[in-house]
Amino acid sequence: MGDTQNLGTSPDEVQFRFRDDEPVDHAAVTVDSVLDQTNAAAVRIEPGDDARLLLPFLDRLALVEVNFPVFGDGRGYSAARILREAGYTGELRAVGAVLIDLLSHMRRCGFDSFAPDKRLDEEDAARAFATWANVYQRAADRRATIADKRHEA
Amino acid sequence: MYRYDSYDQAMVDARVAEFRDQARRRLEGKLTEDQFKPLRLTNGLYLQLHAYMLRVAIPYGTLDSRQMAMLATIADKYDRGYGHFTTRQNIQYNWIKLEDCADALADLATVEMHAIQTSGNCIRNISSDHFAGAAADEVVDPRPYAELMRQWSSFHPEFTYLPRKFKIAVIASEKDRAAMRLHDIGVRIVKRDGEVGAQFYAGGGMGRTPMVAPLIRDFVPIDQFITYAEACLRVYNRYGRRDNKYKARIKILVHELGAAEYIRQVEEEFAHLLSVGVEPPREELARIAEYFALPPFRHPSESWDLEQLQSKVAGDPSFRWDDGFGQWVRQNTHPHKAPGYVSAVISLKPAGGIPGDATSDQMRVVARLAKEYSFDELRVMHTQNLLLPHVRIADLPAVWAALDAAGLGSANMDTIEDIIACPGLDYCSLANARSIPLAQRISERFAQSGRTELVGELKLKISGCINACGHHHAGHIGILGVDKKGKENFQLSLGGSEAEDVSLAKITGPGFDEDGVIAAVETVTEVYLASRTEGERFLDTYRRIGMEPFKEALYG
Ligand code: HEM
Ligand code: SF4
Q1: Gap between the Cα atoms of B119 and B124, Å rounded
Q2: Cβ of B497: how many Cβ atoms within 10 Å?
Q3: What is the reported pLDDT for B313?
Q4: Distance from residue B174's CA to the centre of ligand 1 (Å)
Q5: Thinking of the domain B420-555, which architecture would CATH place it in?
Q6: What is the reported pLDDT for A153?
Q7: ipTM for the complex?
Q8: Average pLDDT of B206-218?
Q9: Which candidate, B121, B543, B15, places its Cα nearest to that of A128?
Q10: 8 Å CB contact between B45 and B96
Q11: Domain positions in chain B
């Protein structure tokens, strides 16, 4: 279970947030701790963690942080989609090596808040979030795809 | 062939704008080279020995005359007047400047082309059978399925940072002309009881640990095609190794888990994704397929068959049937589904030339021929040749005359002169040895001795290092460049195949220097000629008599 004191980001570290509810203001615990402890509302997923272990606890989770220790490790994208596909509606926060060019993909995978290691240029980020006027795949953002639009009634 | 609608065009335009912005941020110092690298890679921009290399995608190897003409323009405007066609049906330019790159991409976008996902750890350009849409033996045209996959895999939000690159090939006949089982995922479109579906293979590849992909599902209903692919990728993204880049390809995952366990995990994910609903609407495949409708072939009475062709040209001295034209027709054409037509291979392997290279002038000649004689369609073959897919047999004399005049008339498809070679030490920063000069010397040697035709079908493939970009594991004869105490050395291997009789080649024994390996290639062809029985190819003879007689002759 280890030391959970410093785990997780605080609301101050969140640079972009696409939700209106109050952010959780206490530290997150590890996935292992969620399995053991019954009261934590915030959890932090590391790349090697199996997001599916959290599925029985989704009701009581209000914040899931997905850590990207390095930008090239894309396991967190699958973790995010898996949680959204299972109906998780709480905050899904990307933390760590969150770079401009990852924002649009992360958003599509269901992330709705972002706490980058290094603050990002606001203008560049705004442009990045708006990169795709349309999308090819169905994903966690539930946007109608290009194919859907092509065959609209 | 497929044409972009306004959506597809907007996606590519958005990508060009995004890349321009990334290049700007790199120049302004907002991005480190480390951070910029994966971004330029997903836009096909590599840093090589001498310059940047730009790799342009040619989805499933199909393009039209306008696009080929633009490839020629790019070669003139931003490179040195030539380009290099690759084993993944793409084209590479070796001398691009970083500051020109966004402009080159913008030019490409005007003809519905791009360099998206031609490198990086993402789903790469989808390859296919170069005879797709023309081959007499195909079940259906595989390209609509490949196009559906192209759209699904383009900018896929979940699969842009996979453990390693991911290559997919889609075919639709028993014959495999795309090295399908040497891909991360190989798909064969099949028909069962009138129903179209997809057979999936996973975990093939070359590189330092070559593996032939096992079958992982015999039939995926076509309206679950994308969902199944998504399941395969998600299991790989979650569990593929990331601790060691040499063990990160899906072949290692499938091998370490065992095919049965990988299949179990994919099936579980597949069942889940079916309930989520990620498949594109069914009408989308139908919409795409319309673009691949057969061209309006002329009635057979308006063309000839090959016998008629032979008798018609018999009296014309410029079209000798014994060599020149006749040899080209026999060697470089492939049976077509429409009577009176063939597919005609344009060899980019002149004896002594650089495999896969074409000058901008040659590209323009090819573009013109496609427009005049092949319903405006062209293909890039994984053998680094080009193809006119639909040529009326009666037009072959005119086509050959134009090709021959442009230095494109070599009659050597699938012969020992039709060598696949990677860029090697002439361009590549990872190389141990030069592949191109070796290919040049071998093809020259056989062309001069006149033995090419005698030896018949013989696939020779050369890689400059263990990464195997030149497919040496799959060569009837394979050559691998290694470093031996600072000197170039070449390992010879025999018995590989990338076709439906797929197999991996075995090393003969100690390596050779450059002269030595050329002599060794001649030696093994002599063993073959002395041992072959009626109708046997080199590969068949090797499989029958085994390695020993070859070893004996080489080292005995
Ligand atoms: C010149 C720059 C190139 C570099 C730096 C490069 C790098 C690599 C590397 C590192 C691998 C091994 C990947 C692995 O095993 O995980 C590889 C494999 C491969 N490359 Fe290249 N390559 C280059 C050019 C080419 C060209 C020109 C072609 C096509 C003619 C090509 C086609 C392939 C193929 C077919 C494979 C093996 C199939 C597989 O991925 O398993 N590469 N390349
Ligand atoms: S096989 Fe090696 S030398 Fe040849 S292109 Fe690939 S990485 Fe370079």
Answers
A1: 7
A2: 22
A3: 84
A4: 26
A5: 2-Layer Sandwich (3.30)
A6: 66
A7: 0.95
A8: 96
A9: B15
A10: yes
A11: 6-109, 134-289, 420-555
